[in-house]
Specification:
- The chain is of the alpha/beta class and about 325 residues long.
- It folds into three domains: about 55 residues; about 90 residues, no CATH class; about 160 residues, no CATH class.
- It is built from 14 helices and twelve strands.
- It has a five-stranded mixed sheet, sandwiched between helices. Strands 1-3-2 form a three-stranded antiparallel sheet.
- About 20% of the residues are buried.
- The mean pLDDT is about 85.
Length: about 325
Amino acid sequence: MKKHKVYLQELSAEFSEADYSKFYEVVMWRIENGELVPMKSAKNNGRKPALPLCFWEYEKEADYTELYEELKYRYHPRINTFYYREHPECYERDREKLQLLSDYLKDHSELLLVQETMNERSFEIFHREKYFQREGGLELCKRVAITPETLAFYETSEPLSYYSCSKQTPQNILIIENKDTFFDIRRYMNSGNDRIMGREFGTVIYGAGKGIWKTFEDYVNGAERYFLGKNALFYFGDLDFEGILIFEHLIEQKQYRESGIHIFKEAYEKMLDKAWQLGFSRLPDMKEKQNANIGTSFLSAFDAERRHQIRELLDMGKYIPQEILNEHDW
């Protein structure tokens, strides 16, 4: 049984001076019922009849018998109620949504034969389209051992944004981290230029930073058929820890381990040359709390001199944005 310290003055807050006799009776009743235990070292208030100035106040443990019975018999057999039997204090918060999930499994399980998007299934079950995505729905399902596979839904990514000046295959495809550089290169290619820093490209893709991770998970479904040929993929982003990690995470995705994604080395070297001429100390500071735990895949694409430059840049806490390059450089 939980207890905490409580002072006589706190207990008397609801009673006026004229009600002392009534207050005394209430306190004594609580002592007799075990709710209050006078502290051994406590002095009394000096009144007649006297009361201790300090107590241990004990909280009665909740009786969860009815709740356990409800958890045992109320819900669909696929819902594992172990978590709520171990944490009954959390059950009241989730009861309504848990009942909706159970009713859905009981009455509409045939709908699970067809996959839906996360938001579609969320609305179908909970009548809120963002319940899975933003309101704790995924955590609730995890607590009761209901997986996304069980509910037959899939996550969606932003549509793949790209520009192609050629639909031949194989071709070189360039992935760009930032929007301004994507627009700049798209305009450059749309003007009839298919070579960027001496390398021919047929398609440029806007990666949207880390958004490229999810976009590429749907790469097969989101792109035209010529994308699926034996094309060469190149990546070009900001020169900082985050940009490097975007590339390193991308090359770890299963569908690209065989063909690989290459660094567009010529663009990075041009970035380094322009930044070196400007002076690394005049470059912007990296965002705080970037993950500096990069691997070797990115740096190994460069020679020793370039690796030294990149390390010096990162050690200074500086970074080179893609926007250091523009149409004059392509």
